[in-house]
Prior knowledge:
The chain is of the alpha/beta class.
Amino acid sequence: MKPTSPVFTGINTTVFETMSRLAMAHGAVNLGQGFPDVDGPLDIREAAAKALIDGPNQYPPMLGVPELRQAVADANRRFYGLEVDPQSEVLVTSGATEALADCIFALVSPGDEVVLIEPLYDCYLPLVKQAGGIPVRVRVTPPHWDLDKTALRAAFSSKTKAVLINNPMNPTAKVFSEAELQLIADLCLEHDAYAICDEVYEHLVFDNRQHKPLMAFDGMRERTVRIGSAGKTFSLTGWKVGYVTGPAQLMDPIAKAHQWVTFTTPPALQKAVAFGLQKDDSYYSGLASELSGKRDRMAKGLAALGFSVLPCAATYFLTCGIDGLNLGDNDVEACERLVREAGVAAVPVSAFYGDNAPTGFIRFCFCKQDEIIDEALSRLSAFLTAANSESA
Ligand code: PMP
Ligand code: GLN
């Protein structure tokens, strides 16, 4: 028989699904896949339930229900001072994942180079390849995940169609500095490249930092598309409601890609997300402060166990160095041991690289109830104590 697509044939199931399956099989505390263990605000869920009962439950407009497109435009003005036309510059998608696919398929043609920053969220590479694009990878390196500016400059050329950045960044928990963003903007302008900005963690930013979208930099408004996710902003990851904001001339082909990928997104969920986006500032500041408290709880506990906990400015992930813990030869082995023997699931950071990945880091997700975090820490402690006494 003829071969199936090489982009999708023989590749691994995503590390998040794999680790969640293993966590379930071993009764482990699941700090692998990123999702909160308490559902988001009740009033948003009630708004969805009401909309589901009241209807209509038929195909909504392809670009998204008007209330949500308006709410996304309003949120852009409220949080970032960006003026956005809800009719022509906003698209609602079935999650940020679909938004990424739509943007990449609409902007990248076969042979175009796309600059990606490693570690990278796992759908980026296959989506760029499926579009026929040529990934050009640049790295940020631990412990501070600084961007190598010379390497970034070298990655751009006249062949660069787009740069894809994830800010705040999963799994590094990095917020790109103003200087790094300015350099990316300068390079996009110099090489006439588009920027695809995955900003799903825009509201999960800690310690009074402010998220600043690349789109807000001089000259970037007309060449940037910016992606958000209600899953992250409202702790409702299963809803898969995302949104893209961008200039009308880019949104037109992006909407056409969406037309053939999903076409629409469930209308009841869209209406509820529109309601959620209008929540007052205390919701957003409360989310960030609650999560930063969990970050501190988890970081303190992991550090006490000997993990080298890296800084975490945003997202709900903590990345840790595992050198000296005798967890195996690499991060994948360490995560296998932790899920099977300690009863705690984490994610190997090497899964976020195309090749030649560093293998000494694992990621823990901390958007969990305090008692779950404590249970995970006590399981890790028991396991490490037993393992060390065996090896002593
Ligand atoms: N981008 C990043 C960086 C993510 O971590 C995630 C995780 N969910 C997504 C995109 C996908 O978001 P969604 O669930 O809205 O598709
Ligand atoms: N973004 C989530 C993470 O990084 C996972 C999403 C998924 O499983 N597709 O853990």
